[in-house]
Design goal:
Elements lengths: L4 H8 L5 E7 L5 H8 L3 E8 L2 H14 L8 E6 L13 E9 H14 L6 E7 L2 H10 L3 E10 L2 E9 L19 H17 L7 H16 L1
Parallel strand pairs: 1-2, 1-4, 2-3, 4-5
Antiparallel strand pairs: 5-7, 6-7
The protein binds S-adenosylmethionine.
Length: about 220
């Protein structure tokens, strides 16, 4: 199975030495396996809610990374990612990628409220609803570490690295990820504005404010 450009980008953004990295919603575990190969943390945890995926992954990991082969410890869990058993007083990075924005918000909220006084970092890559995700993260009190934009199979993905310890505000429309010297970034901004302009016709959303925020970003990019 291919280690996609999006997963590669997420991998590249992990530069700190964490005690624990949680590859939540790991599917076949491609990202976590890569992290395991490069000993990116002392412990790599693979979490998915589908039993068969975890059973197969566990078998594969036992073959490839037995204790005497890898210096990084690993563990698999067939579990709702909302319930991950985080170790207190150690550093934790929780990755949630490749799921819709609403589920991703629910998972971050559940993990955050189960570990209220714990320093937590998250690396998030939602499928759609980035503005809503950023709003929720701001409300939960997170700050920004880094962010990045990646295009894969004609679709753009925002990757957001956040922490309970960071005081850098998370912009609702994105900040560090933009490079307007790149045509693809201009294209993504244009697409996003068009998407919310279509939603303006549906009066139940707050698309007006969202369109305005993205248009202001476009104006500042042009000046
Ligand atoms: C499309 S895959 C994402 C794989 C990988 N993280 C990526 O970014 O490419 C989504 C995975 O999320 C898992 N999943 C969905 N809800 C979950 C939950 N509440 N807890 C754990 N895993 C979940 C699914 O079983 C599926 O394997």
């Amino acid at each position: 199975m291919k280690f996609s450009k999006r997963l590669q980008k997420i991998d590249n953004m992990i530069t700190s030495n964490y005690d624990h990295i949680w590859d939540c919603c790991c599917d076949h575990g491609l990202l976590g396996v890569n992290l395991l190969k490069r000993n990116a943390a002392k412990n790599i945890h693979f979490v998915d809610i589908v039993e068969k995926l975890i059973r197969d992954l566990d078998k594969q990991l036992k073959q490839e990374f037995s204790d005497n082969v890898s210096k990084t410890r690993w563990k698999t869990y067939c579990l709702d990612a909302a319930e991950i058993p985080i170790q207190t007083r150690e550093s934790n990075l929780i990755i949630i990628s490749g799921v819709g924005g609403d589920l991703l918000i629910d998972l971050v909220q559940s993990i955050r409220s189960a570990h209220k006084n714990q320093k937590l970092d998250f690396l998030l890559c939602p499928v759609y609803h980035n503005y809503k995700v950023r709003q929720a993260l701001t409300t939960m009190g997170f700050g920004l570490i880094n962010e990045s934009l990646v295009k894969e199979n004609k679709q753009f993905y925002e990757i957001i690295h956040i922490s309970t310890q960071s005081k850098i505000p998370i912009s609702l429309v994105g900040s560090l990820m933009w490079d307007f010297s790149r045509q693809s970034h201009k294209e993504y901004l244009k697409q996003t504005i068009a998407h919310y302009q279509r939603k303006l016709k549906n009066s139940t959303t707050n698309a007006n404010k969202i369109v305005l925020d993205y248009k202001n970003l476009q104006l500042s990019a042009e000046s």
